[in-house]
Amino acid sequence: MVIYLEVKIKMSIEKVTRLIKGANNITVLTGAGISTESGIPDFRSRTGIYSSNPLDILSIQYFEKHPKEFWDFMKQYLNWTNVEPNVGHKILAKWEQKGYVKNIITQNIDGLHQKAGSQNVLQVHGTMATATCEGCFRKYNMDFVMKQGEPYKCIGCGDPYVRPDVILFGETVDASTEAFKIAKTTDLLLVLGTSLQVYPVASIPKKIRYNGHTVIINYMETDFDYRRNTTKISAGIGDTLTEIDKLLED
Question: Looking at the structure, do residues 144 and 216 belong to the same domain, yes or no?
Answer without folding.
Answer: no
